[in-house]
Amino acid sequence: MSLQIYNTLTRTTEPFTTLETGVVRMYVCGVTPYDEAHIGHAMSAVVFDVIRRYLEHCGYRVQHIVNFTDVDDKVIARAAQLGRDALELSSELAEEFLAQLRALNVQPATAYPRVTQTIPEIIAFVQGLIDSGHAYATDGDVYFRVASDPDYGKLSGRSLDEMLVGTRFELDPRKESPADFALWKAARPGEPAWESPWGPGRPGWHIECSAMSMKHLGEQIDIHGGGSDLVFPHHENEIAQSESLTGKRFARYWVHNGMLQLVNPKTRQVEKMSKSLGNVVTVASFLEQYDADVFRLIVLSSSYRSPLTYNSEIAADNARKLERLLTGLQPASGASEEGPAVTALAAAVATANAEFRAAMDDDFNSAGALAALFELVRAINSARDAGVGGAPFAAAQRALRDLAGVLGLRLSPRPKGRRQDIAPFVELLVEVRNELRKARQFALADMVRGRLAELGVTLEDGPQGTHWKL
RNA sequence: GGCGACGUAGCAAAGUGGUAAUGCAGCGGUCUGCAAAACCGCCAUUCGCGGGUUCGAUUCCCGCCGUCGCCUCCA
Question: CA of A343 vs C1' of B32, distance in Å?
Fold first, then answer.
């Protein structure tokens, strides 16, 4: 069985093949940097990071392009509100987001193109659509002529007729059809603008992605991704533009992640993240409290296509899951390299590898892949208890790290901030407490352990001595 | 109103036409001076509700109820 991917375009799960052997061309819609990034943005980035890592694990070379929509209505509005330059604001927020992606262990994309760096290509694209009769200019705006595309609506599963009946397209006398959408917007005073054959203006929302995808990956790509909220109109319009211009099928697989939603722990009601509800969880605030692996576990625990519910309980549960995974990396306590326990461990490693692969091949079933990791952790811990050590034990731990790595888990939570400084003091207390234990002064020893626990330091006495962690 | 998705143990969440992974929490045991961690065992006769197809359905079909997404800016 090889990799199968669910394709929004066909609404079926299909075997994955690429245009060019061994290479995957993948374009993922990135963010519009107009405000702080929240964990919904991070979810999408992590989902496609896992897809990319798995494709690479399968031996593909992945060309992964993620854009920044660094000029659009929201950026301009937000900048005006702050009294700042729009492009300066979006550039600053984009850099901030890139830093957060690094913190989340998201592999850097092959390129992060921006609208403002793609203006000539966008203008050429729009001109091509005008020349071929798929677009028209009016008053400095350019619109895509939806009626010129007989396939329009194929991604989102709706017909043009359906769309025009009963929906709220605004009536604009300059548009031939209410469903026509802007490719180029004439500049209004004070807005960023570029010269074009239709006068000064800026690109519409959808054209940039088509242009950037073509610029960086060519006319046809393998995977186009983004959040499920982008299916209509954004991706529908991208298909219309690109296929009208080239006459070729634009993307072979359309992959969409479900939306992250908040569940209010008190009312158990689902809430949208919104400023007015005051419940926006930013990437920065999440990472202040939890390790990046915790976020990744939350995302990996369910299907990328389903809506993901988030609240603090779920974060805490996943923090404990991470602790559990980490127990598999505790050092061996014995040195036995043969015997039934060693055989069992080797078998568990083989099973974990096979089950991991089978799960991920099935449309990136990360929850199933995680289950394989947890089973491997149990096998490793059992083996440790049975005295297994040496090369077989190391090999099993390496397998655990490797598989976790395919999912982008670091499994090495770094102590936050300056906490590392306390190590010598904690170790001193541990040493004193162990002297007390030897002297059977258990009341005092327990007091030391209890007081340290209150300070957030956990002590665990094992056969190898005392282990402490924050 | 239109299009679409989902509803599995206390929580989260996989999955299959032949009788339910995994993690957290909980319970019992081993280990420990006591804990913790680890390990062993237990924890859904049942997969929103009602019909239908089938030898057999949680899995397929229909209806209902509920939740959510999109249709307007959104990852």
Answer: 29
Do A158 and A36 lie in one domain? The reply is yes
Same domain? For A268 and A222 the reply is no
How far, in Å, are A116, A121, A382 from residue A200 at the CA level? 14, 16, 69
For strand B, is any atom closer than 7 Å to the CB of A160?
Answer: no
Residues 328-367 of A with CB under 7 A from strand B: 330, 359, 362-363, 365, 367
- Cβ contact A385 with chain B strand, < 7 A: yes
* pTM of the predicted structure, to 2 decimals: 0.94
Nucleic strand B near CB of residue A276 (< 7 Å): no
In this structure, are A233 and A93 located in the same domain?
yes
* Pair (A326, A382) in one structural domain: yes
Nearest 5°: the CA angle A297, A301, A305 is: 120
How much of chain A is in helix, strand and coil states, percent to nearest 5?
A: 50, 15, 35
Token look-up 């677009």 returns A135
**Tens-digit pLDDT profile for residues A127-185:** 999 999 999 999 899 999 999 998 898 898 877 777 766 555 556 778 888 889 999 99
ipTM of the complex: 0.93
